[in-house]
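Question (not urgent): is this output format expected?
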Amino acid sequence: MSSTDIAATPSLDDLKIAVVGLGYVGLPLAVEFGRIRDVIGFDINQSRIDALRRGEDTTLETDAEEMAEAKHLSFSTDPADLAKCNLYIVTVPTPIDAHRRPDLTPLIKASETVGKVLKRGDIIVYESTVYPGATEEDCVPVLERFSGLTYNHDFFCGYSPERINPGDKEHRLPTIRKVTSGSTPKIATLVDSLYASIITAGTYKAETIRVAEAAKVIENTQRDLNIALINELAIIFNRMGIDTEAVLKAAGTKWNFLPFRPGLVGGHCIGVDPYYLTHKAEAMGYHPEVILAGRRINDGMGNYVAGQMVKGMLKRRIQVDGARVLVLGLTFKENCPDLRNTRVVDVIAELREYGIEVDVTDPLASPAEAEREYGIKLVSPKEGYYDGVIIAVPHDEFKRLDIKAVRNFGRRKAVVYDLKSIFLAEDSDLRL
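Got this back:
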């Protein structure tokens, strides 16, 4: 075929969008585009679609009023409805498996679904976090196989990495600058113009899809390494009897000191994305030492926290075997209901290894999901019942408690471990 046979692509005004996957990333995107153009929000979870049609978002990223303002947005679980569209934005999860290897299953399944309805001139934009090369090496072959079409001749691709920060009501989709890219210069310009229509913070057009993929995966890898450094410093300072938070406040008076804090690193981004990069590096024969060292530190923090709690109890002559500990918070971060890859479960598991009975409470987490995913039953805490209390996740609801209310959950000698330093140093017994 000659170059003149290359499929014509739609103009910006003629784009009809399908957003495939309506989680933390996909729903805000569908809502913003749905304010100004036709959008189909697609998800395979019928209960999720039913809730969205009622104006209910369990992720708490949007509300009923915002969804009502998206007058051009409709929801569907029927793949046939996708055929009405000519631009597909894929926003499905990209987790890791039990061996910490990338699990592209949701991404491949979404590509199969789109491939079955793909037409000449259509464009597929991926937002899911992947290693550099995944869009063109893993997804495009699936699109070609299921559509019978040829990449960059019959259909085209783009990549625009998601930057949603779950639970953050200040930095939301329109106010976060967006990186864009396309498989040809023309497609790159079209994709960039599309996102520029909803992103008030502006866009940045990367040179290639692989550059955009790499930019995303190192954003969270850099953050992971910075937190790992602070976690290691916290371990060192604890051995020296120095309050880490006090050190960080003092160091923070320098203009270029980065304000990271120690803690459990979980979730579907920071605790996962570095493994995508290291997987690709090792596949190419390079063993990334610094990145994996940071991951080892952060993955080990749950055991460290549990060990510190046990030491604190022993110092107060509390019998550890059979003791009761209350954990405040189970989600992977504050003010967010997401339980995916939460590392609070590491603390709980390690405490139970010592024979400690652990109760967990979280006002934002789904009790059904907590039990289904981790076998943890969320409870209403009892006053005067526990030998220790761990403030694991600094939800605003916990911050509104005073230290007396927290101590009231415990017995007279109970140890309070303020993992995220929400109270003054003198008000708690342990801090990370």
